[in-house]
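From the shared-data thread, chain only:
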Amino acid sequence: MREENNNRCFRVRCTQRIMEHQEKEQAMPKLLYVYMKFQTFLKHIDAYLDGKAYFGDWSSMNDPMEGIPPRVQLEIKNEKVKKEFEAKLKECKICCLSERSDNFAMWSHYAERHTGVCIGFKVDNATLMQQDIEYAKIIYSDSMPLKKEYVPIIEAISKIEASGDIADSKTIENMKWQLVKKVLSHKFNDWSYEEEWRLMRLSSVPEMWSIGEIREIILGLECEQTLAKLKEHPCWGDLLPLIGKVKLEEKQGEIVFQLASPSVSLGMEYKVQKNGIAITKYTGTRREVDIPKIIAKTPVVTIGYLAFSNKRITSVSIPSSVTFIDDCAFATNELTSLIIPAGVTSIGEGAFCENKLENLEIPDSVIGIGERAFENNRLSCVAIPNSVRSIGYGAFEGNSLTSIIIGYNVEFGSSCFFSEADGEWHETEKDAFVYKGFSDFYKKNGKKAGMYTYNDGNWNFKAQ
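Structure, as tokens:
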């Protein structure tokens, strides 16, 4: 009885020692990074956006010493324990991460010579615990692993196995798992530049597991083709707020490897409102602009006052989440074509004035169009949907309109479509007089919905 009690006390002490060691382990950094080839990222892009990462077999690691350090093998004299240890080792699945996102060698080795990506995860402990995933910071040394790290565990397993006490099978399994974890938490000093952390889980097959939340997607130096392919992907709107890029910069006469943060890459300042994100300022230099649908898991709903004005922008993609385009948001640019997404209800004063618009699509969600919203463009035709109830002064003034499609009973002023007050927009009084006649013609025609066209000095109406 005394011997049995001693054995149980020994097992308790071993288990406590293991738990104490786990508590002493370092806390993980705020972000951990996974380097990969672009095709790998593309294949699992949805999973990565959901905060999942790939756990592979230990045997697929690029270090030939992974999992088979000779000193460990020699210390396990019990053949049964040895075989069980090897079986547990094969069952272990590993996710390798790094503390660094700017390691030049790792970009070359793991991210296909800077054509791949590096993903930054905020790893969540609660998520790991729910899925029985354990983590460890890699210990680098000249020999691996040290005896003091694994011999006590091997001795404890062997002693319990020899006692034949099947009641402690769970304890034995836990100890074997801890032994595997110890073996896979050591690497030679040659690998220390990786600054590696490992997530480990027992599973029969390699697969994706949730580890937390994706925070960054960093593109390599040779990312032109990568970026072009990402832009074509259906998830581009979700990817854009996360994307950063590595770059080479010269500082004090030296070439330095730098990282542009996702906020810099986005090129847009914003603020969080009750109903969503408002873009307040465009700080980028790209003339072809893609506005993201989501920023920080919050929908972009407003394009703010002067946000993109006077930036020589030639094209813009506005996401379907936007409901309000504020005053002068895109004023004084070089836009030639524009599709306003369904969902926008209000277009502010001067929102798109002083551009080069030749094509314009306004959705039937729009209720109001502000003063001078599309003033001084190159429109020859405009379609005002039935949803629009009011159009501000001079909204389409300064264009070359010969065709207007408009809904029923829309309220607008006499100078809404043409410069009618003094006839300056057209050189002759006749032209000025004819154009002045549109508002009167619309009213006399009962404000009917349809197409109004100007031909041979007269306005004509066709119901639609």
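The radius of gyration is 33 Å.
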